[in-house]
Amino acid sequence: MIAEETAMPPVAAGCHPELGCASRLLGVSRTEQAGRYVVAREPVSTGDTLVVEPAYAACLLPDKFGSHCHHCFTRLNAPVACPECSGLAFCSVVCRDEACRSYHRYECHYMDLLIGSGMSILCHVALRMVTQAGEQFFLDRRQDLTSHSTEILPPSDKYLAVHNLVTHSNKRKPKELFQRTLMAVFLLKCLQKAGYFSTPSIDQTERDSNLNLPILGRLAQRETSALINYATKAACLSEEELLIGSLLLRHLQLLQFNAHEVYETRIEAPRQLRTSKTEYIGVAIYPTVALFNHDCYPAVTRQGLQGKKLCNSFSSLDIKLWLFNMFRNF
């Protein structure tokens, strides 16, 4: 954890009544062509802080595991190890305990498999969105998750605000959907093995015991009817597993268009900003920041500070003008 945290600037003109992380100067509009996008509801001045939003979920790049805290992305000074794995570290006992109480208890023993699979960092964020919340968290929202909202403003529930971001499923080719479905099945299998679900899938205990039978015992089961019965059971999933699997697939689609890279600014000499560099260290999802559409001539700049994303205007804007963002950090 950071010993002395910098005070976050307040958003200009106070918080939006429905977009809690955004300024009340902003509004959200929608068209068929552009979807939802942020506009100026009131005049915006140069330098106004428009959004201060914590990441809903964030993952560190694997090649930064040895230099940055796995939980808060701070550079490591006196690393604290995980008691179960040796591939990553934390900056403090506080970060370690927070991670191990939530997502890391499911990811810990499978981290090498996840990295070795070659999956992208977006796939890991899709998994993190599930592992950082318990199974019951999603079961309590089952009804809201099965009916995707079309409201202009995202809901106040932070997960539902992420869940209702666009996926463009109807514009994807079958091959692309198949690849993402295959990845969702892989991630679901990892969750099953990690003990994420309170109730195992149908006959999972029996299937697991069958996998450990001696070879002769397995050969004795090769009658056609037994094989068909076994394959049918293996394909069965509980209602809870089907829900989480469908959410993983949705996460894999929406992150492609809504996630943001996390950068670290490195200043090699004191007060020499000309030699500073930005270094890509991770990926995060910010549901409010995701509502800003892209333009090569943006009106908003983004900065990361202590796990939060800050958006500031660098030009004055009149009412109803779009607030564009460029999909890179400055």
Features:
SET-MYND_domain_protein, methyltransferase, three-stranded antiparallel beta sheet, alpha+beta, 330 residues
Provide an overview of this structure.
The protein is α+β, with helices and mostly antiparallel strands and 330 residues long. It has a domain at 202-236. Helix content is 33%, strand content 17%. It is built from twelve helices and ten strands. The chain has helices at 93-101, 104-107, 111-116, 121-131, 135-139, 142-146, 158-163, 174-193, 204-211, 215-219, 224-234, 239-258, and strands at residues 26-31, 35-40, 49-54, 57-60, 80-81, 89-90, 259-266, 277-285, 300-305, 308-313. The strands form four sheets. A three-stranded antiparallel sheet has the order 3-10-9, with no helix packed on it. Helix 8 packs across helix 12. The chain is globular, with a radius of gyration of 23 Å. The two termini are 25 Å apart. Mean pLDDT is 87; it is low at 209-234. Keywords: Methyltransferase, S-adenosyl-L-methionine, Transferase. One of its GO terms (biological process) is methylation. GO terms for molecular function: histone deacetylase binding; methyltransferase activity. This is SET and MYND domain-containing protein 4. InterPro entries: SET-MYND_domain_protein, SET_dom_sf.
